[in-house]
Design goal:
28 helices; 689 residues; Hypothetical protein af1432; elongated; mainly alpha
Length: 689
């Protein structure tokens, strides 16, 4: 006895440890993926009131110029920048030397020396002012440049562009400025173009270097805010100046490099917040959903959904590849509502989005939209029985998203034109992704062994192979199962049990009778094979339909929760007819009670308890001699009270109040089923006198 108590205590302790490990591991995993960036905790918009308390500067920081101001300053410097050129003096020397050589070689025969002197003088002046490529000159003029920087004796000096020459203008200058004593035609015959070449070239490397140096000297700040200096008070309209200060504070806060110690501190803070959120879920399950809390499988499933959604949010925020509004958070309450209940679904959803809001850019907007969408999902999809319901729910969720976003945007912006239209596209994709919940529900059913209402309704289809075979081979049992399903369904609805689950379980609970259908009264037609058997042999055949039903259910791949109905619908009760018959015939003979007792287990849920009651009441009702209100009420009371007295429901979370409601439902339904008809009077013939 003591060893058994110690074993049970050890099992309970292990389960508690497993639950704690699951929650702690989930918190650590979420915190691991949480971004470590220091988040600026204020959101603000120029021209809108400051929503927070009085704010002073936490430290000294510069007031940074806006991107527009910096761009204007850079553009101004770039536009006013004078490019750097270099002059190649050797070109002047080589061309003058070539001119003199050509003159004394050939030109002196036809050209007087005075022409040579004039050309040399003009070329010297032109080369000193510089000859530039025509395309470069045009480019400088189009860009509005008037000066360039020209190196002279390693010193750059300003040089007017209009004083420089191109090859064409240099040639024209030599011809046009020739004195009257010189013949221009004879001057042109000197082949002047052979001695006019560009000697000014753009120094791109120096120009880029000097421009970059000037741009780097632009001050990024327009002022300084000292620690403790007033910035803004609650309710004040954020002016352009205040906006610039707040934006600068945000820039400094975001750009601060954190030490390893600081990162560890941030991690601990995040772990603390996440731990509180998950601990609230832990308490909710412990205090209000004890059945879920006792199941390690259920806790693992719920935490898996929470962790996956938050981790996906962390990745989206860290990479900035996708907006968080594309993540279909409403899938979580839909799935949990399908497998568990709406209250668990909504509470878990709120814990998830509240945790995720700590890393989203606009937490107020995010929280408002996601909580409203989660509520809509729960309200619009209380019982998923058809695929079309998901489409309808997705449309309602999309409408909720749009209304909340529009309202928040109008509050913040105060202008219809400033609403981000692309946001509606993201919300539309989000809502469309919700319809993938149908696929996920199927996957989770197969993975975790859950049963959705959709699957239960599919299993209730009488064209299902198992039910079709039952109706063909055991028509009486099939009708009995349908009748039990009707009774159990109504009872379950009145005590907030899973009505679809218990009805489906009722349809399959006597599946094992297909092995020996003729041995069960409802399938017999005149011949009773038990007349040829002993009482214990007959009892064993009756009892065997439980194990036979389990084997057939496994053959037809029925879900485990439905197999539980087969195992428990007789609990550990006795086969009363044959047990009592044996006792009456052999009162002095010792009886082996195990031969007349079902193997169990006894019911362990509201649903299995309801099925046991409905099965016994429906079967017993067929033996009534007359169907009156008194006989039906007495039958229901005696049948269920006997089960209670035998301890059939001691492992079920069903209350006496629930049992009384179930009794009332059974009485009402049986009275309707077995209502007495009015006897029609016979027509009397007229007597002829």
């Amino acid at each position: 006895m003591e060893q058994t108590i110690q074993t049970n205590t050890g099992r309970k302790r292990n389960k508690i440890i497993k639950r704690i490990v699951l929650f702690v591991s989930s918190a650590i995993l979420i915190a691991y993926f949480f971004p470590r960036d220091i988040q600026f905790r204020y959101t603000f918009i120029e021209g809108k009131p400051w929503k927070y308390e009085f704010l002073t500067a936490p430290f000294d920081f510069p007031i940074y110029k806006s991107e527009e101001v910096l761009k204007n300053e850079k553009d101004s410097i770039t536009d006013g920048f004078n490019p750097y050129f270099r002059i190649e003096k050797q070109i002047q020397t080589d061309n003058l030397k070539q001119l003199r050589a050509d003159y004394f070689a050939t030109l002196h025969r036809t050209i007087p020396l005075s022409y040579l002197n004039y050309i040399e003088k003009q070329l010297t002046e032109i080369y000193n002012k510089g000859i530039i490529h025509a395309a470069t000159s045009d480019s400088l003029i189009r860009s509005g440049k008037k000066l360039v920087r020209l190196a002279e004796d390693n010193i750059y000096k300003s040089h007017a562009i209009n004083q420089m020459y191109t090859a064409t203008s240099a040639y024209e200058t030599i011809i046009n400025e020739a004195p009257a004593t010189l013949d221009k035609e004879l001057l042109k015959s000197c082949n002047l173009n052979n001695y006019i070449h560009e000697n000014l070239f753009l120094d791109s490397k120096t120009s880029e270097k000097m421009l970059q140096a000037m741009l780097e000297h632009i001050s990024l700040a327009s002022g300084l805010v000292q620690s403790g200096e007033r910035i803004v008070d609650k309710g004040e309209i954020i002016s352009p100046t205040t906006y610039s200060i707040l934006h600068s504070l945000k820039q400094v806060s975001d750009s601060q490099k954190s030490s390893k110690t600081h990162l560890y501190t941030v991690f601990i803070g995040q772990l603390f917040i996440i731990g509180i959120m998950l601990f609230s879920l832990y308490l909710f399950l412990l205090l209000f959903r004890i059945e879920l809390f006792r199941s390690v499988r259920d806790i693992s499933f719920i935490l898996m959904l929470v962790v996956v959604l938050i981790v996906v949010t962390c990745i989206a925020v860290s990479t900035r590849f996708l907006t968080v509004y594309l993540i279909p958070f409403s899938i979580l309450p839909i799935i949990l509502c399908t497998f568990f209940d709406s209250r668990t679904a909504l509470f878990t959803h709120m814990v998830t989005v509240m945790t995720a809001s700590f890393i989203t850019p606009f937490p107020f907007e995010f929280l408002t939209m996601q909580i409203a969408a989660g509520m809509t999902a729960v309200f619009s999809l209380r019982d998923l029985t058809q695929r079309s319901q998901l489409v309808t729910s997705a449309m309602y969720i999309f409408l909720t998203y749009c209304l909340i976003y529009t309202g928040v945007s109008l509050i913040q912006e105060g202008d219809w034109s400033k609403i981000n239209i692309s946001m509606y596209g993201a919300l539309g994709i989000n809502s469309a992704l919700i319809m993938f919940a149908y696929v996920l529900i199927y996957i989770f059913e197969r993975t975790f062994g859950y049963l959705s209402t959709v699957t239960l309704i599919e299993l209730q289809n009488i064209n299902n192979p198992a039910l079709r075979k039952l109706s063909e081979e055991c028509p009486g049992t099939f009708q009995h199962s349908l009748q039990v399903g009707t009774l159990a369904y109504e009872a379950a609805r009145h005590i907030n049990a899973n009505a679809q689950m218990v009805r489906t379980g009722a349809f399959y609970h006597d599946l094992g009778k297909m092995k020996n259908p003729a041995f069960f009264a409802e399938n017999q037609v005149g011949i009773n094979p038990h007349n040829e058997l002993s009482f214990d042999e007959s009892a064993q055949i009756i009892i065997s339909h439980v194990n036979d039903g389990v084997k057939l259910a496994e053959k037809y791949n029925l879900p485990l929760p439905l197999i539980d109905f087969i195992r428990t619908h007789h609990g550990a009760n006795k086969v009363r007819f044959f047990y009592n018959s044996f006792k009456n015939k052999y009162p002095d003979k010792e009886i082996d009670e195990s031969l007349f007792t079902y193997p169990g287990p006894i019911p362990f849920s509201k649903e299995t308890a309801i099925l046991m009651m409905a099965d016994a009441v429906e079967a017993t009702s067929r033996s009534l001699q007359e169907y009156t209100d008194e006989s039906i009420s007495s039958l229901v009371e005696n049948t269920i009270d006997t089960q209670i007295a035998e301890g059939a429901f001691k492992n079920s979370p069903i209350t006496f109040k629930d049992v009384e409601r179930v009794k009332n439902v059974f009485k009402k339904r049986l009275k309707i089923i077995y209502h007495t008809r009015i006897k029609y009077p016979e027509l009397k013939e007229k007597r002829t006198v």
